Amino acid sequence: WWWRHRSSRRRRRVWDQAGARARRRRRVVLGVLGTVAVAGAVFGAFLFRDLRRIRVQFDAARAAMDQAALRAAEIGTPQGRAAVTADLDAALSAIASARQNAADSAAISATGAVPGLRGQRSGLLELIEDASAAATVGRDLVGRVTAVAEGARVRDGGLPLDELTQLRAEVGRAAEAVESLRRPESALWGPLGDARRRFDDLAARNAERLSGGADALAAARSFMGGAGPRRYLVALENNAEMRNQGAVLSYVVCRFDGGRLSFERDGSVVELALDRPASTPVPPGTQEVFGAIQPSMLWQSVNATADFAWSGRAMHEMYRLATGEAIDGVIAIDVPGLAGLLRAVGPVTIAGVAEPISHQNVARILLHDLYQGLGPRSDHDPRRERQGDITEAVIDRLRSGSHDAVAVGRELGEAARRGHLRLWSSVADEERVFEETGLGGGPATALADRTFHVAVENRTATKLDYYVKPFVRQEVQLRPDGTAVVRTTVVVDNRAPVGAPPSYQLGPDGITKRPGDYLAWVLLWGPAGSRQAGGVDESGLVLSQYVVDVAAGERREVVFDTVIPDAVRDGELRIRMVPQPRLEPVRLQMRLRAPGWRLDGATVLAGPWDATHTFTWRVRR
Predict the structure, then answer these.
(1) Strand pairing of 260-268 and 246-257?
(2) 137 contacts: CB under 8 Å, gap ≥ 6
(3) Mean pLDDT for all residues in the chain
(4) Pseudo-torsion of CA 73, 433, 455, 366, nearest 10°?
(5) pLDDT digits (tens, 9 = 90+) for 38-75
(6) What value does the CA radius of gyration of the chain take, rounded to a whole number of Å?
(7) Cα–Cα distance list, 386 to 43, 237, 351 (Å)
(8) 265, β-bridge pairs
(9) Alpha-carbon dihedral of residues 159, 161, 167, 171, nearest 10 degrees?
(10) Residues 6+ away with beta carbon under 8 Å from 527
(11) % of the chain residues with pLDDT over 70
(12) Which of 123, 151, 156, 603 could form a disulfide with 188 if both were Cys (CB 3.0 to 4.6 A apart)?
């Protein structure tokens, strides 16, 4: 018994000692692990702090570059170039701070020795350098534009083609440089990966803009006679009688030869009357909606459709049919577009108008004053449409003396951006560029399955659109399944004087009964593939329409409902809005409701609809 008891105590002592050693080892291991965990937490906290600081600086740099891109249309002025330069300098300053913080961060430096994190550190440093390179490319380009602008003049009708060639090369090189900075194969994680993707998106957009700008400059050079003589019909659009653009009531024929501009003739479209339609095929949807007003035969109807690519082809053939003469393209410009040219070249005078015509009064004179005192339509002399006379005076002004080519180009570019200037070329490559860059074509040239276009057209022969002020309100409802239901309300506000006597401007014209009564043709082009009541495929979109009587001094509303299936794509909801180029921009209000979704971005937007706007919301469950 004693021996067994002693052996048992020895075994227990051995076990106790072994247990104590095991507990000591566990305490050591746990202590080491705890120390490592604490160190890792401290390291992670410092790393997170430094990365967050760099992310804030990088976001500031990206926002500044975004702002510079939005100001790109302003670089035609010294003030605009200074503003863009300031934006890019702010971006470079933020990037320099991010670079310094990355260099000073012990935590970020330490990741270079950690497998798996080494690539994240190098990716961060690469992102900082790419952003710096992009901002530097932009700043250098502004400097080159400034150098070209200082020497670019329109002298005695000669356009600066050499400067255009030089600028096109500079813009093309900038596009290639920015495109080379994209790294879509980057394997960065988390916030760094998100920052990389956002930068790549910014680089892609700006490279595309620059590339499009280079193509547009090349097309503009050849369009202006850089590759041989060109002859164009200038279709003058009257904003007091609206179709999709102003009604074509008068015209000018001009010529470019080696960049030198000359005038040939002008007149009323009455002189170009046709006895049969032009041979330009009319698409089925266009025929269904607009066929009754003979768009391939009547100049006043040729741009009722939203597709200027079709209108340009039709006018090209209609002019040949009416005169037997060939033209190389069509330039359509309305009164606001003409006002921009007057802003660049200064006031002009024409016979029969007492005051000089400037950018400030041209709309009032052409669309109101010259109609005052005119009786019913049968008493009207077509020569009273004086838009052609003013255009001829502007061309004469450009053909004499020296003018700032950048100012002229800026005004034409702004007119094109707002839809007041449209180009069509019989040369296929030029026409492709015009459509891709928005200088021509229709509303479906980009994001056709997310694009809306609204037009209020005059179903009478009066000049009442001078008084008609539409307003558009959109309510976008995003359903849980990703379908967007868009209710578009178009308000037609007729501010024509009540109780006025009959006149050429106010009517009645045989369709309406009282002076000032307006017959509004309200048309909504919804996204391709969407569903709308009575929708017809037209101009690459889906078109629905209503015709409403709006008496002088009254307002009427028209409501359209559009269903867009699968509206959310890659976590984004996009709505692209293409305006009608009226005398005054239409007011636009948008409201987004998305129950069950989390949204980034304002849900209520309002302002003048003076150019194409793409509204983008990040949405997630």
Answers:
(1) antiparallel
(2) 174, 177, 178
(3) 85
(4) 70
(5) 444 544 554 567 677 777 887 888 888 888 877 776 66
(6) 33
(7) 76, 11, 10
(8) 253
(9) 110
(10) 448, 449, 450, 451, 452, 541, 542, 562, 564
(11) 85
(12) 123
CA–CA distance, 151 with 253 (Å, rounded to integer): 29
pLDDT, average across residues 507-511:
87
Residue with tokens 């019989």: 426
Which amino acid does the sequence have at 294?
Q
Place of tokens 């009066």: 462
Pairing of strands 586-593, 468-478: parallel
Q: How do 329-334 and 230-242 pair as beta strands?
A: parallel
pLDDT at 116: 62
- Express each pLDDT in 107-150 by its tens digit: 667 766 566 666 677 777 888 888 888 888 888 888 877 777 66
Q: According to the model, what pLDDT value does residue 39 have?
A: 43
Contacts of 23 (CB under 8 A, 6+ apart): none
Burial category of 531 from C-beta neighbours within 10 Å (exposed 0-12, middle 13-18, buried 19 and up)? middle
pLDDT digits (tens, 9 = 90+) for 156-202: 667 667 777 787 788 888 888 888 888 876 666 777 777 778 888 88
- Tokens matching residue 563: 């269903």
Residue that is written with structure tokens 């399944």 in the block: 481
Rounded Cα distance, 206 and 197, in Å: 14
Q: How many CB atoms lie within 10 A of CB 392?
A: 20
Residues 6+ apart with CB under 8 A from 165: 221, 226
